[in-house]
Amino acid sequence: MPQRGGRGGQTAQQQAMSIPQGISKSTDGGMILDTTANINNLQIRYRIAGPAAMFKTASQVPGAAAAPDTQGTMGLNVLLHGDGGQSFFDFPNQPLQKNLMGVAVLAPDPNLFWGGGSGLQRTNGVAHAQAVNDLVQNELPKMMAFNSSNVFFTGVSGGSLLMSGFFIPAQMTNYKNAGVLLNCGGMPPQVDFVDMNAVITSTRIHFQSTQNELRLLQGSIPQAIQAYETMATSAGMTQDQINAMQTVDNTPVGGHCAFDGQGFVSGVQLMAKSYSNVVQPGGNGMVAGIGNVNKGVVGRELLSFGDPERKKM
C-alpha cells in the first residue's frame, strides 16, 4: 500500500502508480480490469469488475463479448476511497451485488486525497468530481456494457467528503433515481446545487458513522445531514418521504470507519457487503453485527458521539 507522504522521495500517488495494472480475477469469479485514463488532463486510475462477457473487446479482457456501442443490463457501484487510497486497493465492492458491478477510482492527487487539500478543505473538489462523472459517462462505456441509468455510489472518509460536498450537488443530476452510501464522512454542499429538487427527491442517501468518529467529522457529518434534510424540506418532501430517502446510523462502537468495532478495512468491507440491504431499492437495512441502520434523519440530525479516535484522517 502507498504510504501517506510517500517514501524514498515518492508521493503516495507515485507509489500507487508503480503497482502493476492489468487484468485479474475478482473474488466472485468475475474479471477485474485495472487501467488508467486521461480525463480532463488528470490521470484517473480505476478498477472495474464484472462478468467477462460484459466487458468490451477494447478492454482486452479474456471472454469479453459486449458489442462496442451497447449498454448492458447491470448497473455500477462506484467507490471513492478514503485519504491514502486503502479502499481502492482493497476493492471491497468488487463482487457483483444485486445487479451492480463494482468500480473503484483512485484520486488524482499526490497524497491520494479525493478533492485534494486536506481535512474539510478540498481545494480540487470541483475538478475531481467532474473527472469522476466524465469517467462514468465517457470512459467506462468503452470498456464495459452497463446500464447508465443504474449507477450508484459509495464514499469512504475523504471520498464521502467529495461525494457530499461536490459530486452530489454538481453531478448527481446525471444519476437520478440512484443512491449514495456515505461511509465515515460528510460535509454540506460546497458548490451550487444543479437541479436540486429533482436530485434530492430521487436520490437515496445513507450516512454511516461510528461512536468514536474523528473529531473533525463529528462536526461535519451532522452539518451534512442537516443541509441535505433542509434541501429535501424545501423541495416539498414530507417527513416520511425524507426518512425514506435519507437515513443515518452511528451506533457501532469503534473508531474511524470501524463499523464492525474492529478496524478500518474490515469495517468498510462490512458496509460494502451490506450495500444492497442499505442503499438499493427493497433493502431491509440490516447489517451484520449492527442491525437495521436505515433510520430516518428527521430528529436524528444531531448525532451523539463518544470520545474520538486519536488519529488523523
Model description:
The protein has 313 residues and is α/β, with parallel strands linked by helices. The protein has a single domain, classed as Alpha/Beta hydrolase fold, catalytic domain (Rossmann fold, 3-Layer(aba) Sandwich), CATH 3.40.50.1820. The protein is 29% helix and 19% strand. It has nine helices and twelve strands. The protein has helices spanning 12-17, 86-90, 125-143, 158-171, 196-202, 215-234, 239-245, 264-273, 275-278, and strands at 22-25, 31-39, 42-50, 75-80, 100-105, 151-156, 179-183, 204-208, 246-249, 286-287, 291-292, 295-296. The chain is globular and about 50 Å long. It starts with 11 loop residues before the first helix and ends in a 17-residue tail after the last strand. The mean pLDDT is 95. Residues 17-27 have a biased composition (Polar residues). Residues 1-27 are annotated as: Disordered.
